[in-house]
């Protein structure tokens, strides 16, 4: 059965496909009100209304994601350097170009996992969580915290949706997508990074050090 390539029309990712008996659908788009959005197609994949597959997944080279704060802030209100052991926790999820996040345990996650496993014999995970402790050293009048960057990867592919009865005029719809998510530490020689960062206190933060129970002490608070 032949199927034509995906089309982009009116800001929406669309595809016209063959009928169930192998007849090629017209290349002329249907009326605007009959055109689904990419989000609608993916919603049907997630709910199971459409029988979906994630075809021809291609895994990109791993890279280090943007660092972000994963601990509370450590304020040094004393006149000497201070060190303190701090716990941190970080959960990194996945997102895709069609829609927003990939929900753990959702229908979309399972379809991607099955496709990647079948193609690469690699178990893809839409979310990764790591926890640990780290010693944070902060100079007088400064604020310190723990920052972490996760190894990330992109997986490109095309969603194929099959309906038992035509929907928006067709049995099949195709939507290209790029999934961005966490990869195992060390993938392609890239490693997660955990670092201690610090900065000077702001004027308002210095006021916290001059009044109340925090005066001449080291204290923490949520970032």
Textual characterization of the structure:
With 223 residues, the chain is mainly β. The protein contains three helices and 14 strands. It has helices at residues 38-47, 107-120, 203-210; strands spanning 6-9, 12-15, 51-59, 63-64, 68-69, 73-76, 82-92, 95-96, 128-138, 142-149, 151-167, 170-182, 193-200, 218-221. The strands form four sheets. Strands 3, 4, 8, 11 and 12 form a five-stranded antiparallel β-sheet that branches. Strands 5, 6, 10, 13 and 14 form a five-stranded antiparallel β-sheet that branches. A two-stranded antiparallel ribbon has the order 1-2.
Defining key terms:
14% helix, 5-stranded antiparallel sheet, single chain, mainly beta, 14 strands, 223 residues
Précis, in short:
By secondary structure, the chain is mainly β. The chain has helices spanning 38-47, 107-120, 203-210, and strands at 6-9, 12-15, 51-59, 63-64, 68-69, 73-76, 82-92, 95-96, 128-138, 142-149, 151-167, 170-182, 193-200, 218-221. It contains three helices and 14 strands.
Structural class: mainly beta
Termini separation: 56 Å
Q: Could you tell me the radius of gyration in angstroms? A: 25 Å
* Average pLDDT over all residues: 84
In terms of quaternary structure, what is this? single chain
Helix content bin: 10-25%
Sheet having the most strands: 5 strands, antiparallel
From the spread of the alpha carbons, the general shape counts as elongated
Secondary-structure element sequence?
Answer: EEHEEEEEEHEEEEEHE
Determine the number of helices (DSSP H or I, runs of at least 4 residues).
Answer: 3
Number of strands: 14
Strand content of the residues, in percent? 35-45%
């Amino acid at each position: 059965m032949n199927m034509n390539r995906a089309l982009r029309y009116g800001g929406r990712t669309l595809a016209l496909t063959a009928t169930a008996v192998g007849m090629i659908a017209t290349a002329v788009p249907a009326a605007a009100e009959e055109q689904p959005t990419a989000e609608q197609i993916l919603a049907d994949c997630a709910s199971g209304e459409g029988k979906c597959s994630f075809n021809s997944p291609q895994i990109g080279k791993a890279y280090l994601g943007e660092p972000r704060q994963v601990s509370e802030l450590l304020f040094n209100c004393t006149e000497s350097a201070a060190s303190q052991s701090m716990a941190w926790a970080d959960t990194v999820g996945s997102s895709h170009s069609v829609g927003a996040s990939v929900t753990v345990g959702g229908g979309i996650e399972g379809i991607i996992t099955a496709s990647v496993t079948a193609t690469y014999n690699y178990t893809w995970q839409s979310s990764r969580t790591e926890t640990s402790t780290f010693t944070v050293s902060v100079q007088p009048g400064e604020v310190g915290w723990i920052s972490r960057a996760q190894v990330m990867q992109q997986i490109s592919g095309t969603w194929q949706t099959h309906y038992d009865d035509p929907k928006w005029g067709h049995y099949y719809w195709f939507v290209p997508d790029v999934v961005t998510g966490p990869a195992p530490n060390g993938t392609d020689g890239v490693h997660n990074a955990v670092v201690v960062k610090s900065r000077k206190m702001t004027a308002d933060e210095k006021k916290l050090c001059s009044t109340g129970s925090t005066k001449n002490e080291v204290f923490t608070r949520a970032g």
